[in-house]
Structure formats: C-alpha cells, structure tokens
Amino acid sequence: MSARLSTxxxxxxxxxxxxxxxxxxxxxxALDLPGMPPAGPPRHATLAPIKEKTLAxxxxxxxxxxxxxxxxxxxxxxxxGAEADPPKLAGLAHLTADVLNQGTATRTAPxxxxxxxxxxxxxxxxxxxxxxSVKVTGLSDYSPAALAILAxxxxxxxxxxxxxxxxxxxxxxxxxxxxxxPGTVAxxxxxxxxxxxxxxxxxxxxxxxxxxxxxxxxxxxxxxxAYRPGNAILVVSGPMPADDVFALAEKVFGDxxxxxxxxxxxxxxxxxxxxxxxRVLLIDMPNAxxxxxxxxxxxxxRTAADYFSGKVANALLGGGYSSWLNQEVRVxxxxxxxxxxxxxTHRTAGLFLASAQTKNESAxxxxxxxxxxxTRLATETASPDYLRSRKAVLIGAFSRDLETNDGYVKRLxxxxxxxxxxxxxxxxxxxxxxxxxxALRSFAGHHLPLSAMSVVIAGEAxxxxxxxQKLFPQLEIIPQDALDFDAGSLQKAxxx
Length: 496
Known about the structure:
The chain is of the alpha+beta class. Helix content is 43%, strand content 16%. The strands form 2 sheets. A 6-stranded mixed β-sheet has the order 1-2-6-3-5-4, sandwiched between helices. A 6-stranded mixed β-sheet has the order 9-10-8-11-7-12, sandwiched between helices. A hairpin with a 4-residue loop joins strand 9 and strand 10. Helix 4 packs parallel to helix 9, helix 12 crosses helix 16 and helix 12 packs parallel to helix 17.
C-alpha cells in the first residue's frame, strides 16, 4: 500500500484541519492559546569564569574563559554613542564608526580587509545609543594578530577625505530609500514625539540634513575625545587563560596614553526637556500603500530596579507571535501581518514602542486595538501557564546567547557598560522568574499609562485621516515634505 495520499484525501484532511483551527480560534481567547504545550522548567545556563583587570591607562579589560572551541571574540566598547551627538549633527557617532575601519596610518581599507580575511576572522564596527562596538571574531591561535589589527583600527584611523565622502554618500542613499517606507518614517517620528529633545530622541543614524553638515573635522574631534582608554571596556571571550588576555591587552593597548585632563565629548544634556503632553500625529505620505502605526512613550533606563518587570511585561504584550498584540491585531482580526512591541533601555532613559502595519483605512482601528492591549497590562492578569510561557521566551534567549562567544560578550558588555555588577548574569533567570502578576500591573501602571502614550502614524492621509479624526479629535497632520526630524516639533520652520 502506497504511503502517498491521493489528492482528494489530502484536500479532505486539509479541510478538516482548517475547520478545527477556525473552531479553536473562534471559541478560545487568544490570550492563553489553548492547546499549546506548557513551558518546561527554566534551565540555568552554565556560566564561564570571569576575571577583570584595569590597565594603568584606565582601560577596563574583562576576560571570559570558555573552553571547548578554538574561537574567540573581542569587543572593544567605547562608552559614548549616539546619545552624545551634538545638536544638529545627528548621526556623527554612526558615521565615525562606519569610517573607522576604512584605513589607518599604516593600512588602507583593502589591506585591513585582506589581513582580517587571511586570519579567517571578522571585524565589525557598530554604533549604538550609549556606545560604539569594535569587534573581532576568529580562531584563538590567531588572537594576537587579530587584536593587533583591532587596536590599530581603534587607535590610528586615518579618516581620509575620500573615505568619509564615500561612506557619507552610501549612508545618504540608504537613508533616502528607507524614508520612502512608512515604517521607517513613523519609527523615527515616534522617538522624537515621545522623547522630545532628550539625547535619545533624534534619529541615531542621522538625518538627510545632519549627515550633510558633518565634516571630517567633526569626525576627528569625536574620535579624539571619545575613543580613549579611560572611556572604554575590552571584553574578550574564548579559550585563552585570563592572564594571557590581560598580557595581550597590555601589549596592544598599554602604551595608549589617556589624555590629561581627559577630553570629554559634550553631547546633549540628559535632562533636556520632553514634550508637555503626548501627541496624535499622522504623517501624510501620498504614495504609501500601507500605514505604519506606532504607540510611543518614555520608559525606564537599563539600571531601573523594575527592569525585569518591564522585560516580562513586554514579552506578554508584544514579544513574539503568541503576544497579546499579535494575537489581537493579526490572528484575531487579520489587520496586519504582525504586531509587536519593545522597550529600549539606555543609560539615562528608555523608550517604549508598539507597532504594526496595516491598510491606510484601518489605521485608526489598529491604533485603538493597540491602546486596548496596553491598558490590559495594568488591569488584567494573565494565566499562570501563559505567564510561564512568556518568561520561557526570555530565559531561552538569554541561555542561547551564552552558547556563543559573541553572545557572551554582548551580554557581559551591556552589564559592564551600565555599571552593573559582573555577577548580574548569575541571577538573571531568577530575576525573570521572580516577576509576578502584581509586578506586571505595577510596571504597566507606572510606566505605560495610556495618558502618556503618543500615537504616530505614517500613511496616506486621504484614506487614513477620516477615521482617525473621529477617534482622535486632536489629530495633527504633517505632510511628508514638511518633516524635519532635527526639530522637536518635527516640522520645518515656515519661510517668510
């Protein structure tokens, strides 16, 4: 007897399966997803030995000894990122990081790439809100040569005019293309609306205007003030003994003098003002085939005592396919291919965002559904099984990160960067597990009140505006060509 089903039998079984799924979806609340296997008990990741040493010049070196594979990762973290971009120069930290490995005093960009390739290694430079990461990964046998190249790139970048201009053109081209997407426009506007003039409000990768204003002199000045040993952390994970890591760090960075007095890169003040009240904003993009809908409000810094309550609350609300937002917006109503949320936590502030893309005419409905789901966090209690499953998502992600050197330095680097104890990772699983229903309601009530939420939508106003105006009489509409992401108001100044 053939194991292959006939076409008729396959269709019949498919129809029965669809009927069963529709029955479950229509009769069961999306919140607890009946039928899913319960989450198992949390598994504690095995943590590697960690040692640290501060060099005489102030460079903090953290060594993680992980045996088993002959691979290492070294991540050099500069403790100044996009939050320190000077006014009107948004994107300076990112542009500097992008040009950093495009040539040094002794190597051209092709020579750097060739040398890294010959070692079977990978060199990456990335700017973030609170730091810049310059990272190399490769075979541990070649770690001295790889770290020597890493140090050369960090200490001796040439910042040649032609390289600066080439990277600038590429960045501007990418940004122009990205700004044709409603999701990009709404996301950038949401950060500005929620955080006003704080250091974390501007587009971190820059604007079309600010990227044009940045000069080679600005890049050189930023490097001189921020890229220094006393403003940096080196995290190395691999099979090398800690003492070998410290000796290697001393060899390639030990003679790097810390300026006296240390130069401080002056950015925007952390206490910069925020908007007086939330806004409901529609950015009119006449050619937009869809609308991007965002809810946004200020949130917690990384060092907040209720950080893990926020992580679990977000996992319930918008952290994955099984989250409340995705179930309500996508699965139950079919208004979007996906909806989610996130809490960005930084040195002095944070940002909550919930988002989805939908048809222009259903933007108002999606915004209303999203507001309802946010409100539920402070008023409803998830079932124990569902709460356990959402915690398992966070615990699983944490444990997976610790399976690789790259993930280890990412987690440990974050802890060191924000001044948290290095043993923080030892009780991360317990911290997640300790979050209960009351902690979630408290977090939502304090940090995610609907009264603090701004609504930002980018789409075609002709279709999106009428239902939005009925739901939000205070709706503001800004034409796409009048946007100014450098301005707190988001609008270009009127010309007289």
